[in-house]
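Hey,
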Amino acid sequence: MARSPFEWIDEQARARSRAGLVRTLRPRPADSELLDLAGNDYLGLARHPEVTEGAARAARTWGGGATGSRLVSGSTELHAELERELAEFCGFESALVFSSGYAANLAAVTALAPHGSLIVSDAGNHASLIDGCRLARGTTQVVAHADPDAVRKALDTRTGPAIVVSDTVFSVDGDAAPLTALAAACREAGEPGESGASRKSGASGRPGAALVLDDAHGLGVIGDGGRGAAWAAGLAGAPDVVATVTLSKSLGSQGGAVLGPAHVIDHLVNAARTFIFDTGLAPAAAGAALAALRLLREEPERAARARAVATSLYERLTAEGLEAVRPDAAVVSVRAPSPEQALRWAAECRAAGLAVGCFRPPSVPDGISRLRLTARADLTEGQLDRAVGVIIEARR
């Protein structure tokens, strides 16, 4: 029998096993006794009756699927309604909904970084932004994490259009990007005589760099009533700022969107491959996201509660001697000594009735394994006590 052309896959599997990096699927039942600190349902809306009814009503009205790409048959009045309300809520001129947050990030980066452009990307960015940089026709410079001066130095080398790409809240440690300083660096790049390229060419008055922000972990948690990190930083609606969001975290649904100036959104409709060639977001997901958005607008206190729960988790765990990163939103990162110990720690928590995230290389850019806890606005004080107790006991 001929040797399998996939022998290299088996060798990689053995290497992953030796390193303690094997990942497995674990289908969950509809009803579980586990206390969930692993998912991204920050506001506790995924099972809210109004959200599930929004999904069901949309499916009954529009069908189970979008039936085609948004440019063919996949755009419904429901999609347009969601886009209008998302843009208004977050403070942007226009919005465009995608089938996932991943697709939205790929669209924003690839369509806004043509040949000859420069992409400046934070070293801690999410994989979807990294993949967008790899697929874009521009040149990418990766800079030190959350370092506006490094961004300035990178922009100083540009000779054409440029975008700076960053998460607003980084998904691994839950720390926030210095958005005000990043925006200043982008705008300074357009001032005459400031950049190396301007000094060489004598150019003046050219545009600054655009700022593209992935607000997946900011929407629903940061800003006035959860309007997002761009709103909180005073950048929402700015002509040089674009934000992407996911509908699968705070809004408890699925999908993504790009928010920005109307002419930028029109450009994405015509140039973004993950919009043009992908089937539109399923109506049920759009209906659920719209219902969740309206709930958030009516109950803005959910955002503050999610942040308070995250802070409480951090303070209680560090008081017990654990090493954690102070959260800027709803993600709490707790360091583990090794990938194997992180995996065992998470397994012990699960055995005790608590689901936690377990982040190991290559998901973590710094190579440090950790438990990743996600706060939820609907957690009670009793549930917080239980979660902290389980984590501490499992670590011992």
